[in-house]
Specification:
Strands 12, 13, 14, 15, 16, 17, 18, 21, 22, 23, 24 and 25 form a twelve-stranded mixed β-sheet that branches. Strands 1, 2, 3, 4, 5, 6, 7, 8, 9, 10 and 11 form an eleven-stranded mixed β-sheet that branches. A two-stranded antiparallel ribbon has the order 19-20. The chain has two domains: about 375 residues, Rossmann fold; about 230 residues, Galactose-binding domain-like (Jelly Rolls, Sandwich), CATH 2.60.120. The protein is α+β, with helices and mostly antiparallel strands. Strand 6, helix 5 and strand 7 form a beta-alpha-beta unit. The two termini are about 30 Å apart.
Length: about 650
């Protein structure tokens, strides 16, 4: 992992580091054969789709499935120290210069060791000078690696305007890979390393197809820019995205001495002006304003797809280790990256009980036999960059933390190979329809419950903590640990105490029948565990704009003929009209989770109309949904239900 150090200006650096730690960062869907949506008739979709010597490339048939983690990998340092060379500028094809810092192994006196080394690279958007990311992981350097950190175009001390994973960035990354291969300290073998933004650029480097990229260690990376974070459920993200844009922009506007022989005294001023112009006229301000007013990019356009690593995952052949979190902002996409890689390269997936910040560091590891991230990463790079026998290639394919069980459990795949889907129906109650029940039997009577379409519910919830990268969870920890407050403005359905434990693994779909008195509405679904004291411990959630809820069966995920992960096109063509008082069904994608509900505890599903700051409608859609009331139906002809992948408890390792 990268080291965060206060450098050069301690007081300023400390403030920036605190913000960076809180804010670092910025899917695709699978299919199973013969899906049948039990709410409508559909046609079945098609079936789914360097030290010498270097290790031989692996194919899926060569991989060993080992469900037990070995002891943490360790070895002695190869060199006693490390040293960073003066910061340099890399000139790109169009004349734009990117700031880079190279750190090399050093002797006892701090002198750089001459020679060629495998290179670990981190391409960042967070200004390496102030965040300390220029000071690479010295533990890796002393193990015999060169390390290069580069500020991406328009960020940090680099020239140009920031475009956030655009095609320009893709081209820059390919050029940087070529640059690294040609350097005198490089042996032509590259590993990509980093969390969040740096995990995303690592995946994009792998997607260049350059054979020099031989390993990727991507921590909490994004998969699908539109669905994962920016417009989840068709809603503009009002939490993380504004904070992230502010962070990247703010760090890019700080004066940055680049540390090289300054033959261009106007470099710093020119760069700052380029960053400011880009923010005001080219990217940040126009994109945020467009999200608010609902321009064409409120749909899933090429603008978002080019920024989505999941679109290029088939081009990644380098073995890739993916780290995710059950409450990460990229919770949806991290398993999908693994799923898109596993059939053509050696891919591993580790998901912890983390928000974005905790996931970036692998907080509280080692645990339950799972080593700390530094040990795992060293083994990964030593195996694939140095050809050492570390056992990394046979690490468990999937390791997930199960809430409720409160431990890490391994599996041969994701979702769990023994998973099967069960449908849980939401039932109203006489006199108290808002306090309903859950059974596995469809409703035999008709009930309905109504609630106001307030856009502010969700501020005291685990969701609010998640979508501010853990920030609100630090300020109001009781809100992050229960759903009872947010449930007050929702229709709540709770099962009887379970007779035996139940394990959940994978994505969930809420198929909710509803109507509105307005011309549009959001439909939210929360899943939680209710203990014997009535505390609702949050597991996961989803949000969906009703007018954008058309499902594309050919790209959706079905399990046992039940829809468990819808695929919403989010296109202008698929947008449907919502008429007042006219019932509709919304297929709500609930983000995948892993959990065990113990015997005696209860399953809770709650349905509402908002989840702030996770999502808020662009202004035209917001106006269409204001002053409305959402009615949720439980009836034989309108059976609101939730499809949940379950795993036999005895199948959990």
């Amino acid at each position: 992992m990268f080291l965060l150090h206060p450098v050069r200006y301690p007081s300023l650096s400390a403030g920036v580091l605190t913000l960076s730690l809180l804010m670092t960062a910025c899917g695709g869907g699978g299919s199973s054969p013969t899906p049948v949506d039990d709410s409508q008739t559909v046609s079945p979709p098609p079936a789914p789709n360097v030290s010498e010597p270097e290790p031989e490339p692996e194919t899926p048939t060569q991989k060993t499935v080992n469900l037990t983690w070995p002891e943490a990998y360790q070895r002695e340092d190869d060199y006693p120290g490390s040293v960073s060379l003066p910061q340099q500028l890399i000139t790109l094809r169009d004349g734009i210069r990117l700031a880079a810092t190279v750190t090399l192994p050093a002797d006892e006196d701090g002198n750089a060791i001459a020679g060629q080394f495998p290179v670990i690279a981190t391409f960042t958007g967070y200004n390496q000078y102030y965040s300390g990311m220029a000071l690479s992981d010295n533990a890796l350097v002393q193990k015999g690696y060169a390390y290069i950190t580069v500020d991406m175009r328009g960020t940090g001390a680099s020239e140009g305007s920031w475009q956030a994973f655009s095609q320009i960035d893709h081209d820059d990354i390919a050029e940087l890979v070529n640059y690294i291969k040609a350097q005198p300290w490089s042996n032509g073998t590259i590993g990509m390393n980093g969390a969040s933004y740096m995990g995303i650029t690592g995946l994009l480097a792998g997607a260049t197809g350059d054979p020099a990229v031989k390993a990727i260690f991507a921590i909490v990376p994004m998969a699908d820019a539109y669905r994962d974070v920016v417009f989840g459920g068709g809603q503009a993200n009002a939490g993380f995205i504004p904070l992230w844009v502010t962070l990247v922009t703010g760090l890019s506007l700080l004066p940055t001495p680049v540390g090289f022989d300054n033959s261009d005294p106007g470099y710093t001023l020119t760069t700052l002006l380029q960053h400011l112009q880009g923010a005001l006229t080219e990217f940040q301000a126009p994109v945020v304003a467009g999200a608010l007013i609902g321009n064409e990019n409120k749909f899933d356009t090429p603008f978002w797809r080019i920024r989505s690593p999941i679109e290029k995952v088939a081009q990644i052949t380098a073995p890739t280790f993916v780290v995710g979190g059950l409450h990460d902002i990229f919770q949806r996409g991290e398993p999908l990256i693994y799923e898109g890689l596993k059939d053509h390269t050696n891919a591993k997936l580790l998901i912890g009980p983390w928000t974005h910040v905790d996931g970036s560091s692998g907080a509280n590891l080692p645990a339950d036999g799972v080593p700390d991230l530094a040990s795992i990463r060293l083994a990964w790079f030593d195996h694939y960059l140095k050809g050492m026998d570390t056992g990394a290639e046979s690490y468990p394919p999937v390791t997930q933390y199960y809430k409720g069980a409160e431990r890490y459990i391994t599996a041969a795949d994701w979702p769990h190979p023994d998973a099967h889907a069960e449908t849980f129906y939401l039932h109203g109650k006489p006199l108290l329809p808002q306090l309903g029940s859950i059974t596995r039997q469809p409703p035999a009577a008709r009930y309905q419950t109504s609630l106001l379409q307030t856009p502010i519910n969700g501020l005291c919830s685990a969701s609010a903590s998640q979508w501010t990268a853990g920030l609100l969870g630090l300020i109001t920890p009781p809100c992050a640990e229960q759903d009872n407050v947010v449930n007050l403005l929702e229709a709540v359905y709770t099962s009887e105490p379970l007779a035996e434990a139940m394990a959940i693994n994978g994505p969930i779909t809420g198929q909710i029948w509803a109507s509105t008195t307005a011309f549009d509405t959001n439909v939210t679904v929360r899943v939680s565990i209710v203990d014997e004291n009535g505390l609702a411990r949050p597991l996961t959630h989803g949000i969906q704009m009703a007018s954008m809820s058309a499902n594309e069966p050919e790209r959706a995920r079905y399990m046992d003929d039940k829809l468990v992960q819808p695929w919403h096109p989010f296109s202008a063509e698929s947008q449907r009209s919502i008429m007042p008082f006219e019932p509709f069904q919304a297929d709500v994608e609930v983000l995948s989770t892993s959990a065990v509900i113990a015997a005696g505890e209860r399953l809770r599903i709650s349905v509402g109309a908002s989840d702030l700051p996770h999502g808020i409608s662009p202004l035209p859609d917001l106006l269409a949904s204001l002053l409305g009331a959402l009615t949720i139906y439980s009836a034989p002809e309108m059976p609101s239900r939730v499809n949940i992948p379950l795993v036999p408890v005895e199948s959990l390792q």
